[in-house]
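Reviewer 2 asked us to include a model.

Predict the structure of this chain.
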Amino acid sequence: ISALSLKTPWIADSERRVTQIGAKSGTRIVPAETIIFVVRGSSLDSEFRIGITQREVTFGQDCKALLAADGIDPAVLFLAIRSRRSDILNLVDHTGHGAGRLATELISKVAVRVPRSPTTIADHLSTLIKLGAQREMENRHLTALGNALLPELMSGELRLQEAERIVGDVT
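Predicted model (structure tokens):
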């Protein structure tokens, strides 16, 4: 995951890949339910990109990862931090190259309120985060399927009834 690939709150995939050798040579690997956010890049001029991992991932130097402490639901923490986006953007300064930078010492002072014990609200929020991630993945698959079928439909190589059958089989 990089500053460029962090485009959705549900982090499950990226165009970038790490080889086995790369993974063994100091790459930072984090588990599912880790919060990742951008700390350096041009996107910080207008937005605070943050997401929660849906599986084990690696991340680049322009991002930071945050694991929820014991007793704090990761989904609740993610939403609590995300709700402070405008306050966090006010902490951004700029490097000599014009890219935005979010200093660790500044972001670590941002206070967020989260319940420490499991609650019904935390359970519901966690379920909603997982549901959002599933829908995001479905959208990606359907977009890829549409992109694959459209040229064949337009050229006449594939009939509409055949395309409907293919889509029905996938969904």
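Strands lie at 10-11, 29-30, 35-38, 40-41, 50-53, 57-58, 63-66, 93-94, 100-101. DSSP finds six helices and nine strands in the chain. We have added this to the supplementary material.
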